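Supplementary notes for students who missed Thursday's class. We covered one full example, reproduced here. Read the sequence, then the structure, then the short commentary at the end.
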Amino acid sequence: MASPVNPQRVHVLREFPHTNGTVLYWMGRDMRMEDNWALLFAQSLAIRYRMPMAVAFVLPPSFLEATERSYGFLLKGLQETEQLLKKKNIPFYLLPGTPEKVIPKFVQQHNVTKLVADFNPLNIVDQYKISVADKIKISFYEVDAHNIVPVRMASQKQEYGAYTLRPKLHRLLPEFLDEFPPVRKHPFDWNHTVLVIDWQKLQKSLTIDRTVKEVEWIVPGERAAEKCMVHFLSERLNTYETDRNDPIKNGQSNLSPYFHFGHLAPQRVALEVIKLTGKDIRNIVLTDSNGSSDNRGNEAALLEELIVRRELSDNFTFYNKNYDSFEGFPQWAKVSINEHRNDKREKIYTLEQFENAATHDALWNAAQQQMVYTGKMHGYMRMYWAKKILEWTPAVEESMLIANFLNNKYELDGCDPNGYAGVAWSIGGVHDRAWFDRPVFGKIRYMNENGCKRKFNVDEYVKQMRIIAEQS
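Structure (token representation):
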């Protein structure tokens, strides 16, 4: 079977001469069966060499600041994926532990001779893969199943901003934005024991923060993700450009949790938008060189966020390993922040005060409440939220720690390149330019409540979040 996967999506971590055995797809970031280039590549290897294949997900007892909210969403989605894979004669394993221990053990016990992993730019995942690679002597491949244009192909360096990455993506999109083939019913049976997964027992074994509960407004899994996508495209896409930055309107797609957990491929959404409009991708994406959404149309505004902004975050976290700290800021921002380190702050708050939405600012408190109680702060408010943390902490290093900690703890799409890039943009000027110099912020872009009032009804937003908090 010729691989349906563009070979430029595949990065070889280790390669050895072929030997018979089995193929394992180590599922990590892209937790779905449909529209998954990593799974398709693994199956193409297995069919080419007439080998059985399996899928395994490693469940660490904890992961960064992930809580019961995010672990619950993850596990419910994987239960559905297990059943979908079973219909294709592909067994699914849930392996408790850490990758450097359980993957080599699984490889040895199940005669795995080809290992496939999906791409994730975060440091912790990169270290997992390095540790696994050092302990196995089989071919090991990494497939970018998350980005439409693979990160390594889009650029070979950290980009300054959307304006430098956009034309590179635009040039490569026709090569990579192709339709997904279906997963075949696998013709070679897996001859190893597949244990029944006790999902509840595994969930209880986790050493995670259980005070952050699951939310009910969104249903996990790839089938629910598809329904959410279809509903958005049919009901809200026609007002997306005008409504998406208004926190009191239901104007956003609400797809980011599904992208984060890999229940939905961003490429699928792009393909559906193209089908819906009947336009060539090159005529509706990246039409504005400065990145503004003004006058570009709803489809272009969506695809700018879906492709350019999201893939810019992966570019940042892949090429800048200091993505969560001061050291990852551009040089102009470091200089400016250092010049203002001793500026007087009018207010100083602790992590506990921030977490409990106990500041003097009703708008900031409302944004924090939205995140705590719904698991998804509005994107526009997240910028304001992070910038005020910079303004109300003694040092930029502390503001980065607090913003990333809270974002990862409460957001359904936390522990994600988009979150790290968003915080680095808000606090450290990443992907932005120098602005007018001012106290505390230096040349970092400033935001205040008056600016928000010009965008939306602040009082109504505060009222809505207060009601949500009281009902929770």
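Commentary. The chain has three domains: 1-145, 147-182+221-320, 326-471. DSSP finds 21 helices and six strands in the chain. If anything here is unclear, bring it to office hours.
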